Amino acid sequence: MHRMNHWLRIANTMGGIARTQALMGLGGVALLAAGAMGLFLLPGDGSDEEAPIVLATPTATVAVTPSPTEEAPPLAESYRMLIEKIGVDAPIATYGLDENSVPIVPTGPDAAEVVAWYDFSARPGTGSNAVFAGHVTWNGDAVFRNLNTLQPGDIVRLRDDRGTEMAYRVVSNVAVDPNDPQSVKVMYPTETEQVTIITCGGEYFRTDDPVAGGDYTHRVIIKAELESVTRAPA
What is the total count of domains within the chain? Predict the structure, then answer.
């Protein structure tokens, strides 16, 4: 059995990043942290793959007024992620922070199939960085088992139940060291419309953690930029 790895194991103190950025934005939500940002483990209901948890420890919170847009985001609330090359056709579920400011992760009966979109990142279609994540293994192979095989030029699609579709072209596929504090930058807001997709990668190894039981050596980070929007007929 496997319990989902945390995506990016960031040191509790972000060193130079924390010192030079007293206020750090996470996606579209105004969680602005001064000082520390860490990743912690949560139980995974019978799996030995660690859960990807991003924990912001804010010392200041400010309200951010969204920039005005000429029209609403193209996708309806209910949409799916499709990546034909690796056979992904998965529902998107919105995840946020719990009462302890810990992001909630998929752990239910559908955890292997669901893709999480985090509401501290941009909503697709609003012109910034939409962050998604999913399991690589969860009691067997999971939704992003073959995510690491994507190459620049491959297409990631977001399609809603009305038929509106946003197509993103992969521009990079990198494996990062989860202990590198710079890794957290993949979740930062961007000035252009893009998606970031995160899962675990590299080699699995056992640990002495009584809950997690193991870890992966790397995190796979896919970046894809908007190529087209096809709206459903009115």
Answer: 1
Q: What percent of the chain has pLDDT over 70?
A: 66
Assess if residue 195 is contained within a domain: yes
54: left (phi over 0), alpha (psi -120 to 50) or beta: beta
Give domain status of residue 96, yes or no: yes
For strands 194-206 and 214-230, give the pairing: antiparallel
Any idea what the Cα angle at residue 176 is, between residues 31 and 178, rounded to 5°?
60
CATH of the domain at 32: 2.40.260.10
Decide if 152 contacts 173 (C-beta within 8 A): yes
The number of residues making up the chain comes to 234
The DSSP bridge pattern shows strands 115-118 and 88-95 to be parallel
The pTM assigned to this predicted structure is 0.72
Q: Is residue 4 part of a domain?
A: no
pLDDT tens across 175-203, in order? 999 888 888 889 899 999 999 999 999 99
pLDDT tens, position by position, 92-148: 999 987 787 666 778 888 999 999 999 999 999 999 999 999 989 888 899 999 999
Are 111 and 135 spatial neighbours (Cβ–Cβ below 8 Å)?
A: yes
Q: How far apart are the first and last CA of the chain?
A: 47
Range of the domain at 152: 16-64+74-230
